[in-house]
Amino acid sequence: MLTTRQLFLQHLALPSTYPLSIEIERAEGIYMFSPDGKKYIDLVSGVCVNNLGHRHPVIVKAVNEQVEKYMHLMVYGEMIQSPQVKLATRFAEILPSTLNAIYFVNSGSEAVDGALKLAKRYTGRTEMVGFKNSYHGSTHGAFSMLGNEEMKFAYRPLLPDLRFLRFNNFDDLLQITEKSACVLVEPIQAEAGILLPENEFLKALRQRCNETGTLLIFDEIQVGFGRTGKLFCFEHYDVVPDILCLAKAMGGGMPIGAFIAEKKIMLSFTNNPEFGHITTFGGHPVSCAAALANLEILLTEKNIIAEVEEKGLMFEEALKSHPLVKNIRRKGLLMSIELETTEINLAAMKSMLENGLITDPFFFMPNAFRIAPPLIITKEEIEMTIELIKKALMEC
């Protein structure tokens, strides 16, 4: 009889020829456990999904309670479903007043695709502006806005009328014109290796969009929900987007995404033609129940986000002087540990895996590995993790 591992490799369509291929039987908090009992520390939170760790009891309780009532009823937007209404209302209460209408989808890629469509429909324009080394997902629209030709050349032709600027380059902002429907930007470029905005670049971007009547879309799919030390990343920079894209940590481990805008903008989907954007499973009531529980935990247990910067600094201070570490870029508990070469980084991640640490590289900075543990990681667990990282670096 074939093992689960063999069946995994034989029957699952995989995006890479070298998957981690670790079988996980259960997960709890910051830990994942294999069938043989080996314990792994999740240093990437399922790529910034499990900000509150695996199987947070309050989220699990919310999921179970909703399953007992109902699951799927009807395509999104046709029936009044309490989990959707409660979650949408809570977002409207905590977000700026111009972000008061939410469209629920299933993933980050779908959130980006919906936001792009909305911008084109509302402005009547076709040009869309993105940034080099950006990553927004793998559906056709989101993939078109990918800022790396090496990853997407094999899939051309993609969406037309696109323009790509250099992040933190003020001169490039002049390429945003009255022809531009939208600018799609990560407030922190994640897959570029945690590239932070400099010298109030986001404020200058916001100003240029105001001047040209261009909608500003923030992709906070990876950086949202406390990851950077604030509930939403844009709060660090005193800039409010016209459309906000969310996913990943939004559902506390359940699949859900959203794009949020002003109601007058969102109404563009309702006419000429009607049903301008539709989804079957978007806003699934079980996912919405999980997302609401997740959000309430972050809002009420204020120490979780309040301690993010201190916890991130612990990693940075302990690793920045290591002889193999070339550079560290960080915002909160989202950080890039840059090593000298890609080969050293691959060896380091292999050694970390053998020492029970799950991490991964960045798409556009393969000589760096990601540290983005669940926000609930304790300081004692951080100290233990740092020692394991140092041990792995020494071994490689």
Descriptive report:
With 396 residues, the chain is of the alpha/beta class. It folds into 2 domains: 145 residues, Aspartate Aminotransferase, domain 1; 244 residues, Type I PLP-dependent aspartate aminotransferase-like (Major domain) (Aspartate Aminotransferase, domain 2, 3-Layer(aba) Sandwich). Helix content is 36%, strand content 17%. It has 14 helices and 15 strands. The strands form 3 sheets. The chain has a 7-stranded mixed sheet, with helices on both faces. Helix 8 links the parallel strand 7 and strand 8. Helix 3 packs antiparallel against helix 10, helix 4 packs parallel to helix 10 and helix 13 packs across helix 14. The longest helix has 17 residues. The protein is globular and about 60 Å long. The chain starts with a helix and ends with a helix. 46% of the residues are buried. The model has no long low-confidence stretch (mean pLDDT 97).
